[in-house]
Design goal:
- This protein is mainly beta.
- The protein contains no helices and eleven strands.
- The strands form two sheets. Strands 2, 4, 5, 6, 9, 10 and 11 form a seven-stranded mixed β-sheet that branches. A four-stranded antiparallel β-sheet has the order 1-3-8-7, with no helix packed on it.
Length: about 120
């Protein structure tokens, strides 16, 4: 069993920044890929950013140039640095990770609210 715990969400004004964290209960290098998803009210959950063990990162077009995903092996933590936030970035942000045997685990989510 793997546990993922997100933190760092909150209320921020448009143009502001937040850093989300996703702390993993085991060695983070055992999970690849790791992803950040978000879900706005009434919308489907969408993939925001992907990070692989090899260091490859991918982003959905709407966040390119504003969000950065990274992982800290010493802290077993995945981060999502979010800058120039927009109201449309509002939602619950979830992290997940896939084990080497293909099982995916999710965190409980953290709320991000961007006011205009």
């Amino acid at each position: 069993q793997v546990h993922l715990v997100e933190s760092g969400g909150g209320l921020v004004q448009a143009g502001g920044s937040l850093r989300l964290s996703c702390t993993v209960s085991r060695t983070i290098s055992s999970l690849s890929p790791m992803n950040w998803y978000r879900q706005a009210p009434g919308a489907q959950r969408e993939l925001v950013a992907t990070n692989t063990r090899s260091g490859s990162n991918n982003y959905t077009d709407s966040v390119k140039g504003r969000f950065t995903v990274s992982r800290d092996l010493t802290k077993n933590t995945l981060y999502l640095e979010m800058n120039s936030l927009k109201p449309e970035d509002t939602g619950v942000y979830y992290c997940n990770g896939r084990t080497i045997i293909g099982k995916t685990y999710w965190g409980q989510g953290t709320q991000v609210t961007v006011s205009s």
